[in-house]
Amino acid sequence: MSDCIFCKIVNKEIPATVVYESEEVLVFMDIGPIIKGHVLVIPKKHYDPVTETPDEILAEMHLTAKKIAAAQMNGLGADGVNIMQNNGKASGQEVEHIHIHVIPRFNNDGHHW
Ligand code: 5GP
Ligand code: ZN
């Protein structure tokens, strides 16, 4: 998808701070973090929404989110983690390339959904 901002990140046409990468997925820092350490897990291939995304890709995305959550809790010292995935404008989705938000949470960090 030539006009997709996340495809552009995959293709290195725009910069991102990449924290993890495999053959199928890319993890990078969210440009507007809800909490410091907020990252996004995306498939390198363009899919959207979740109902059109192959099971094996979803499985790898979620297993990657689990690894990132472990790093946030064990490395960053997060007390909790939000793992979140929006589909459609009504849900608050802004970028139409499937992505999982992995957000470290700290006791009394002041954020409320
Ligand atoms: P959504 O609302 O679609 O679930 O979340 C999109 C997320 O992508 C937002 O948290 C937003 O800050 C992030 N985002 C949008 N554009 C860019 C970008 O160009 N680079 C990065 N790293 N994150 C982006
Ligand atoms: Zn895309």
UniProtKB/TrEMBL annotation:
Membrane spanning residue stretches: none
One of the GO biological process terms: methylation
HIT domain location: 5-112
Gene Ontology molecular functions: methyltransferase activity
The enzyme's E.C. designation: 2.1.1.-
Keywords for the protein's UniProt record, in alphabetical order: Methyltransferase, Transferase
Transferase recorded as keyword: yes
Protein origin, superkingdom: Bacteria
Enzyme kind, highest EC tier: transferase
Motif (Histidine triad motif): 97-101
Record bears the keyword NAD: no
Protein name according to UniProt: HIT family protein
Organism this protein belongs to: Pontiella agarivorans
Residues of the full protein shown: 1 to 113 of 140
